[in-house]
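Holo prediction. Input below; ligand is zinc ion.
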Amino acid sequence: MDKAQTRLIRAARVVDPANQRDETADILIVDGVIRDIGQNLDAPADCAILDADGLIAAPGLVDMHVHLREPGYEYKETIAGGCRAAAAGGVTAVAAMPNTKPVNDDPSVTGYILDKADQAGLAAVFPIGAITKGLGGKEITEMGLLSEAGCVAFSDDGLPVMDSGVMRRALDYSRTFGSLVIQHAEDNGLVGCGCMNEGPVATRLGLPGIPNASEDILVERDIRLVELTGGRYHVAHISSAQAVAAVADAQQRGLPVTCEAAPHHFSLTDEAVADYQSDAKMAPPLRCLADRDALREGLARGVISVIATDHAPHDDDSKRVPFSQAANGVVGLETLLPVSLELVRDGVMSLSAMLAAVTVNPARLLRINRGTLNIGAPGDVALFDLNEKWTVDRATLRGAGRNTCFHGRDVQGRVKYTVFGGRVVYVDQNED
Amino acid sequence: MNADNNAWSRKHLLGMDGLNREEIGAILDTASAIREVNHRPIKKVPILKGKTVINLFYENSTRTRTSFELAGKRMSADVVNISASSSSVSKGETLLDTMANLQAMNPDVVVLRHPNSGAPHFLARHLDAGIINAGDGQHEHPTQCLLDLLTMQDHLGKMGRDNFEGMTVAICGDVLHSRVARSNAFALRTLGAKVRFSGPPTLMPSRAEEVFDVTVHHRMEEAVEGADVVMMLRLQQERMAAAYLPSVREYFRYWGLTRQRLELTRPHAVVMHPGPINRGVEIATDVADNPNRSVILEQVTNGLAVRMAVLYHLCTGAARSASNIAGE
Ligand SMILES: [Zn+2]
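Structure of the complex:
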């Protein structure tokens, strides 16, 4: 791994949605910070030069929904391993969900995560604190102290906050600190023992289904609570057409309601479960074509402003069991960019709008100084070849978890270099 | 019993979904031919001598397990029974661990009963043996379906038919959790029969009409009217506890097979049930015991013949594929 924090990225097509920039230019990073962007910049003495001719230079990607598994589930993934996967995907900033063991509901856990991430030095990690102590759904956490320790948002992700009174208090209390409250929106009663989307595929396979209403009901309830409290509310991994419509309606009414969609939800349907593929098992489940299309439309209209992966690594033993026993979740960091680029090629979004959804938009929601190529911002850059074709292969993934639902998919667009604080933390080994 | 039914070339029997008429016909033909063995003074033939069949049961089902056991033994196979309670599976050992151990015994066929839908498909991906699905979760139960088909086939003459084309079969009760209903719906549609599902809305699978190409009737009278076959499903009492249903007496009132409802069917109609029967819950005693209508005991007898036929096809077919065809 190279140590140079002063670097000139030469002749890239620089696409920076935050500054509406799309032009061929050089990027000068000095001491890990962006110093200048422009044509034919002079390289200072001892400056490392990265020839980026033919590549796109975007702000390092920001993934606001990642499970790093450490502490507690190191057999699934470690913070260092998760950051390695991030770097391989062009991601330089990840927000880490709190469902670790112990849960990130205490500033000491937040500090531990930040220390481990610093040691790894491959990406910036922004911990998300739990909404409720121990993810128990009963008592809200010390949101102030957790924010001070470095938490950038709050979520009980993996579990919904089912109790309306608790959710009301969380939205209310979080206003003191301006924190975002991220909901995993699934009504437990309607999920029941369901393990995939309710519909013809589940009926054919004889698997208990989960109806869209499980998500819609919680999103609509929470929007009522946002009306009541004014808290900043964000729906994690939105998956149903009706939930997108509910968010759109809330935004129309000026409520602070946002949402994110995961690449698997906007590119696959529940047909991917056919023959009981446990790598396609996730919560919320892959839905039907109409939902997939509604997500794409929501992205096109900006109702869904963020693309986030819900990167959820698992050990093989958690997935190599009959479908209904398999763990929920799928890895996504290393396929985030190519799968999202399908939206651009399919005419759903412009390249700039798509990149905004994985850079500046999540950074603004989390209020972190990332996701732009502003002068003075951290020198985090993703360099990728927009046109390179490749096939996703679980065997070549860099993270410990290889539970990808995109195995065998032909994609286009490949990360060639990831620059984090001026340092090159990833180089595509397959080059030439 | 020479290999004259070439229509069957599969290594596994995972479900009725996707089987074609010829494949179903091959099993039924073999079963019809082989059942004569069960009436001989010495009920044993050497067809599967040297073959190993493992019955791996993660759910109790004395009937199905015994039927497979007897089927294997009557054809001289070595049959090993493993049940979840008597092995390490209850101590956290995964299905995959168990299978790795079973692989060491090099079985020709593994008969699997498992509470999770898709478990046999999972095994088929990881094990060399042929897999017979003996019931998986709420998915399929193909040998139960095949014995139902054989029983119906035996009564075709009485119905004035040569085949299943146009026959009306009402499948009634807890369709949602019934693997028997699913397997029968898939197979009966393939064979050209008309299928009606009946039961309370809480026990009906989502989008059943489109998935199974059936009609759904929440009023049972509608479903059985003019039917040639009424297939009753077993109601698990725990559905009451899980609040799918308010009570047994209400269930019987609206979805039980009574004599009055039976009178709505064709005069020759037969009544089937996968057993064991809950008398007064899904079926009235006088209907269950009516010798002119109930074919429930014939189903049990045919179960043995069908399982012999399936074991025969899979053992000989699996051997064929292992020696002649690489990969599949
Ligand atoms: Zn979640």
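Strands of chain B lie at 52-57, 78-83, 109-114, 130-136, 168-172, 194-198, 215-217, 229-232, 270-272. That is the main takeaway for now.
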